[in-house]
Amino acid sequence: RLSVTWSGHMAVSVSDDRPAAYVTTTDARAAIVGRTGRVLSLADEAPEDLVRVEAAVEPTVGGAVPAPVLDAVEVAAALPPDLVAVTSAVGVTDAGVVLDLANDAKATVGSTNDLDRKLDSVSTLLSGHVERACLSAIDVSEPALVTLSRDPECTGAPV
Q1: Has residue 76 got a pLDDT over 80?
Q2: Burial of 18 (0-12, 13-18, 19+ CB in 10 A)
Q3: In what helix (H) or strand (E) does residue 6 lie, and over which residues does it extend?
Q4: Which of 14, 69, 115, 131 allows an S-S link to 157, with CB 3.0 to 4.6 Å?
């Protein structure tokens, strides 16, 4: 985004607001949002290279996601490609930000504090070190105390 002010002298401001995620609009389109939560554009179909943030917005370019989901947008923007590939949605619950992962597993990130370390932990756990078929939850809200939960009904290999 580039803005120019012209009043005897020129002032130029540039911001780097690239697509970070998408949210569903109230008319069932996809609103592409930047890191700040501002709607950058609208699309008829959900983009495959961006993660969905659980929220709904009015279909207005320049509008913004609701304030309570800004943390989810921040997390979606910070996801490395390997996590984008296995994350179906990012939402906010009472426990903080939560990733909906493949195989119906969830990863609780909690707050956005120490976000890189938390996302690195999730990436490491999903990089082949944990059998995903039986994984039900990962909690990295306390990065020094990562916990895993296994689906008790699962008959696959142990986590």
Answers
A1: yes
A2: exposed
A3: strand 2-6
A4: 131
